[in-house]
## 1
Amino acid sequence: MTINSLPRWVQLCGREVQALPAGQWWDAVRVPLSLGVRALEYLGDDARAVIKDDYGSILYWLIRVGSADHWQSPQVQVLGQNCHVAVPPQHRTSGPGLHWHVPPTRERYWTSTERLHSALHTALAATTRPRPLARNCCRCERSTEAPVLVRIIESPSGPARAVHVCPDCAPQCPPGPGWLEQRLSTR
């Protein structure tokens, strides 16, 4: 990467990490690494300049100044006026320590605030969603965390029973009565 292809503020860093003021060229969005990695998956190629701090397990996205002042999200901190961000030199693109996870260029260093907000919201929802309960497949009896409901069997003498199979066995389950009811009656 040549010096001319970099934004002016990256050139200021020279060969060392520098603390640069947020709110001047960009604001930064600071998130824990585990959340940030999921957000990066959702963003894909829409992720622009991202700083990774291996020691602090943190990712920082650079966004337009003032574009996320209204954000109120758990685990997400917007750094703007009166904040500083440690910025690695342009050549540091791998760890350990502070480095560019997604290096900036002169044309591409702001991540879309709307896309980042959506990706972080989706990633947060995925981390707070309860995991499905593991169930045993009615056909092969293996435990699966992705059970497929094949039918509900009504019983005059008790509560209805839900019948689940694993995704591998689902295509082999015949519709209607048959082996499934026989198998359940022998249990």
## 2
Amino acid sequence: MDNISSHSIKSNNSYFFDNNIWMFLFCPIGNTNAKKQQILSNFLSDLLSRNCSIIVNSLILSEFSNASLRLDFDIYKQEGNILSNFKKDYFKTERCKNTRAAISSAIKQIEKVSDKYNDQYNSIDLDSVLTYYNNFLDFNDCYFMHICEKNNWFFVTDDKDFDIFNSTQINIIKP
């Protein structure tokens, strides 16, 4: 496992950003840790200046959209709005409509700096994914690890769940 500050970037390497990284970089309502946001922003700029590939797939964009909406729903409730149901109540609000527009804009920004990856699910070794799954990770995280391992990509994440893995299993980079 590497730390971003000590990671040696080489041209033409490929990096897969976990959703939590995209949230720090592009979540329109995030702003939770300015220092980490700056570190990740500088890292992204360094990767792009060295012609590295930043990989994105539809599952990450789905996680980004859903996590951003859930975050705004929680903030909206904390502001004193009484909503009991995420989909039935919040989805009907003007606030949700505006948040969706901001998220759509952020997704377009993500696409500008990344390369789309067709994950070819039909060729995935599901047993390998499930091996990771049995290590107490959620399924998406296991899936991301598998495709990174399969393609020899660096996996950039701020998720503490990945601390159980050593660098011989997968190339993990943390801020």
